[in-house]
Amino acid sequence: MKEGVKYTGIPSRQELSSCPGIVDTERFEKGPVAVIECVQEIPCNPCEDACPFRAIRVGSPITNLPTLDGEKCTGCGVCITQCPGLAIFKVHKNYTDTTALVEFPYEYFPSPEVGAEVDLGGRDGAFITKGKVVKVQRNKKSDGTTVVAVEVPKEYFMDVRTICRNK
Amino acid sequence: MKRKVQSVVIGAGPAGLAAAIEIAKAGGQVVLIDENSKPGGQLFKQIHKFFGSREHRAGVRGYNIGIQLLEETKELGVEVLLDSPVYGIYKEEDGLLVSYVREGKEEAIIAEKVILAAGGMENAIAFPGSTLPGVMGAGCAQTMINVHRVLPGEKVVMVGSGNVGLIVSYQLLQAGAQVLALVEAAPSIGGYGVHAAKIRRAGVPIKVSHTIKRVIGTTEVEAVEIVQLDEKFNPIPGTEEILEADTVCLAVGLSPMTELAWLAGCNFTYEPALGGHIPVHDENMETSVPGVYVAGDIAGVEEASTAMEEGRLAGIAAAEALGCYTEDEAKALKQQVWARLDALRTGPFGQARFDAKKHILDVAKGGK
């Protein structure tokens, strides 16, 4: 079977590694940062206006892939709920010595409870690891999109992207 | 004596609302007619955040865009006739006669300009069992869950991977249904990768090069048999799989609702990339029948953002033709809309639509 988001609905390793919305490995060591998994040229740019630090650039034409400037990105996470494609995540690789914090948009009910241990999955929804819900954020500006932060074993910081919905 | 108005817009979806708003904004008189009991077209079932740029209200959920448009029509004093299906447009000496039914009675208005924004209709495909209860259009399922808040079924198979199939699958999950699989006959996913990624994260398998072979059931959908296809779209024996589904949703494209344009005598061109036979129209969205304009899916199936822009374009042009704008004023406004339309039709998902739209303009200028 062919790889890539066009064939599977999952961005491939290759697509992610060449994606301008994902910073280099060095930047991940330095603190929380946005991860923009936008790999297809679609006419869309709300992320550009969403960033208060002008760290995200789409420019013209509007189909350009968003580029994230790792120096300017503070990891505030306001872009997460402004992406209509729910393609922006936030990762804090060195949350503790052994764990990373991964934040993702979540638009299902019920919302998870803070402190709950949950099954966490990857881009294909399959189970990867258990993790703890650290934060559940929802405000007027997020317009119905909840942001869930989960603490996971550090090695899964680029793999965990959701709470498992299928058992 | 028939009532006479400057303009009539038929269809109160995103295109028609935008057109009526532009005419009213310019100071023109406009009556907006829709066969449904509520205005808004399909906007009020679009619970997802829209794409595009700030000018296209990107990031805003579709139903909120609908609310904004309705507020604007109210503020501008646009007259809206609901529950009023239009059944004919006839050329009269003093304008275009628009005939419709309201509260069981036939009524008619004579308008100098008519904008057709009737929208599109879902396509269906046939397979054994396709007439069983439980097989429905994806748009139908979307209306049930998001407008009427009724879950059509608990275990769904979605057919078609365009944005409608992907988005409705996601919304069925949000409504509490399970989507057992999304099947797509083509070898790749038709819609945006980000929409596909959302349902993949929820664990929905997307099976490209697969189709529905038959629905099993006597009085309703009891199970669905799917099969893999080879590169020539022939079923590969031995790859059949049975899914215990109770609902099948068809998201296999839309066709423009062009009946009124045919009745009005518009010239047509065949544009597969835009859903079929489309009324030929120029840069002002005006058809071959003077004074009759088109906007939205009837002018080529795209999506709500382009429909709104086309509605604006038709509205500005009609207002100009009515003398509400000078040529220069209208030109500046139309250029802004064209720039936004061009932006929405760029990239790998927009190019085919851009080319087809350009072809329609060429045909309007006398080309083939």
Summarize the structure.
With 167 residues, chain A is of the alpha+beta class. Chain A has helices spanning 5-8, 13-17, 25-29, 46-50; strands at residues 33-36, 56-57, 67-68, 88-92, 99-106, 117-121, 127-137, 146-153, 162-163. The model of chain B has no long low-confidence stretch (mean pLDDT 97).
Describe this structure in words.
The complex is a heterodimer of chains A (167) and B (368). By secondary structure, chain A is an alpha+beta fold. Chain A has one domain. Helices cover 11% and strands 28% of the residues of chain A. Chain A has four helices and nine strands, in the order H-H-H-E-H-E-E-E-E-E-E-E-E. Chain A has helices at residues 5-8, 13-17, 25-29, 46-50, and strands spanning 33-36, 56-57, 67-68, 88-92, 99-106, 117-121, 127-137, 146-153, 162-163. The longest helix of chain A has 5 residues, at 13-17. Chain A starts with a helix and ends with a strand. The model of chain A has no long low-confidence stretch (mean pLDDT 96). Chain B is α/β, with parallel strands linked by helices and 368 residues long. Chain B contains nine helices and 19 strands. Chain B has helices at 14-25, 62-75, 138-146, 163-175, 193-201, 259-264, 304-321, 327-344, 351-364, and strands spanning 3-10, 30-33, 79-81, 86-92, 95-102, 105-116, 120-122, 135-137, 155-159, 178-184, 206-208, 210-216, 223-228, 241-243, 247-250, 254-256, 268-271, 276-279, 292-294. In chain B, strands 1, 2, 3, 4, 5, 6 and 19 form a seven-stranded mixed sheet that branches. In chain B, strand 2 (30-33), helix 2 (62-75) and strand 3 form a beta-alpha-beta unit. In chain B, helix 1 (14-25) runs parallel beside helix 7 (304-321). Chain B is globular, with a radius of gyration of 21 Å. The relative contact order of chain B is 0.16. The model of chain B has no long low-confidence stretch (mean pLDDT 97). Classes of the chains: A alpha+beta (167), B alpha/beta (368). Chains A and B meet through helix 1 and helix 4 of A and helix 5 of B.
